[in-house]
Design goal:
Four Helix Bundle (Hemerythrin (Met), subunit A), 6 helices, about 55% helix, globular, disordered N terminus, ERV/ALR_sulphydryl_oxidase
Length: about 140
């Protein structure tokens, strides 16, 4: 991430002319757009899963600042532009943990649809299982 903070060029989006990354992509290399995207979604969804049910005005303001910074700072220009457009059309809902989790899930599903991926169930139970509690079978420890 040092390259990103140093003003290095943004990560190029995967396009038909750019083959999708392969599982052999070395772990020690800077993140490609796919790895960066997965990591960012993991961070955002997990942050939402632990956001308060009744956030204080300061907590709401801080979450809004984080989300509003992404279209400016995110190192994938295409991704940042798309998120900025989506946020203008669908402003973030930081009124509660459930509202924020649902808002992020809906934005993520829009990206998944554009990429031809499956939609995720945006119900709070499904979101909590995926990003906070893990499945009831104990497989996550």
């Amino acid at each position: 991430m040092a390259a990103l903070a140093s003003g290095a060029p943004r990560v190029a989006p995967t396009t038909p002319a750019t083959p999708a990354p392969t599982p052999e992509y070395p772990e020690h290399c800077p993140p490609d757009v796919e790895r960066l995207g997965r990591s960012t979604w993991t961070f955002l969804h997990t942050t939402a899963a632990y956001f308060p049910d009744r956030p204080s005005p300061t907590q709401r303001a801080n979450m809004l600042m984080l989300l509003r910074a992404l279209p400016t700072l995110y190192p994938c220009g295409h991704c940042a532009d798309h998120l900025g457009s989506e946020m203008a059309t669908h402003p973030p809902d930081v009124s509660s943990r459930a509202a924020l989790s649902r808002w992020l899930c809906e934005r993520h599903n829009e990206v998944n649809e554009r990429l031809g991926k499956e939609r995720f169930d945006c119900g709070l139970r499904s979101l909590d299982e995926r990003w906070k509690d893990g499945p009831n079978d104990g497989s996550c420890g």
